Target: Trehalose-6-phosphate synthase
Amino acid sequence: MRASVTPEDDRPVIAVANRLPLHRGEDGWELAPGGLVTALRPVMAAHPGAWVGWDGGTKGMPTTLPDSRVSLLPIALSAAQVRDYYRGFANATMWPLLHNAIEKPRFERSWWNAYQEVNRVFADRAQAAADEHPDAITWVHDYHLMMVPQLIRNQRPEAPIGFFLHVPWPSPDIYARLPWREQILWGLLGADVVAFHTDDYRYNFLRSCVRQLADSGLEVRGSGVVLPDGRTVTTATAPISIDAGEFASFAAEPEVKDGIAALEDQFAGRVLLLGADRLDYTKGIIERLLAVEMLLERDPEMRTSVAFLQLAVPSRDDVREYRQLRGIVEQHVGRINGRFTQPGSDVPVHYLYRGLSPQQLAAYYAAADVLLVTPLIDGMNLVCKEYVTVQQAAGGSGALVLSEFTGAAVELPQAVLCNPFDVEGLSYRIEQAIALKPDARRKALAAMAEQVRVHDVHAWVSGQLTLIAARGAAAAGNRR
Ligand code: ADP
Ligand code: G6P
Model:
């Protein structure tokens, strides 16, 4: 389901991302979790080329992405590299730093050294892939690989290179805490295009460039950064999305319909509130649980008329902050159920700690009356886009409670917007969503689903590849 077709649609793409889109699950090779893979997988399936990524420590990765012309080029990391580059610098330094330092970023020189080393490995592998596809666009993704654009640029001055950041860029004040702040910026500025989900993140990036690099002679002109050597790097705002056609089609699949019927049966007579996230401290899961607890405290009738179901995908559980979060979430679930389960009645809070297939997830989306998306900060958030798409396709009238600190809130203002830091306020927002009249729910849902349908991931990728190709050609032309 393409929104538009451009000359770039069949150009080879070398995607460079920390993760390959497959990992080995209990039933064999499955899609890896997280928004990056959700967004990129259908897009890459439409292009020839290659995907360079870490093999996640599993051997025997398929050599191509199923149903595609994309070679999977696995990178094996040593145990020390996984510890220092992935768990350390990527997930305990850059992830919290870029998410407004809501957990304290940890700064370790040995992690930084490993980050540079692994970025070199990815850059070399991407260049070997580009040798096979001389016309390819190289498209680098996310906070794990911010040195890669410049490493490739050093070797291939004329290559079209794009970079997309899937997470926020914080205010220049927060970014400035990073001991290696200049190096990371120079790394990114090796690209022709550096793109973000929202204007706010893009402006923050431009302000960081000025604050950290102005002494070098670099200048910001409009949305471009003019480097001391005269090359211009374009910045762009390009909110990522989902394959809306694919998600909508799930609603009609027999397996999904059976799943919906089973859930409707299980939660008959209750309003079903749903949360679905990677178990991550950015997602506001604790605030959500506390808000549900307040609701049950305030209104005893809700203890039997409402159920809250939290789906949590295990994530980064060998990073300290994530392990601790799991323990805290499970304590809260236990306490709330201990306090509010009525004799002879089902528990008010249900908690599943596991990954699900997109079809299983779609059944939960279709069955839920209200989706709670309450991150303290989230670059975009695709779960809410999936929810409105499936609800609309299934003929539902679900309501969305959406944190104003997500990239998605810019695009979906018809949601019941909330500030998850204000837990009491959040509990009233949930109440408000439950009480919305069917007409108001349907109107909001239709508008949100339409926004996602029109601005789907195919439109996003066409726009990004066209821009990278154009800016790359212009920069190469200027050098000649
Ligand atoms: P992030 O990229 O931070 O994980 P997003 O909301 O952008 O957040 O993307 C999360 C992705 O994970 C979505 O595509 C969603 O379908 C998927 N997901 C959410 N919950 C589960 C689950 N329990 N099992 C498998 N995938 C899930
Ligand atoms: C977010 C990040 C992705 C990452 C995903 C899953 O979506 O932006 O880059 O792949 O989380 O996290 P993991 O650490 O398991 O790759």
User: Anything to note?
Assistant: The chain is about 45% helix and 20% strand. Residues 22 and 31 are 5 Å apart (CA to CA). The pocket of 6-O-phosphono-alpha-D-glucopyranose (ligand 2) is lined by residues 18-19, 33-36, 142, 166-167, 315-316 (CB under 6 Å).
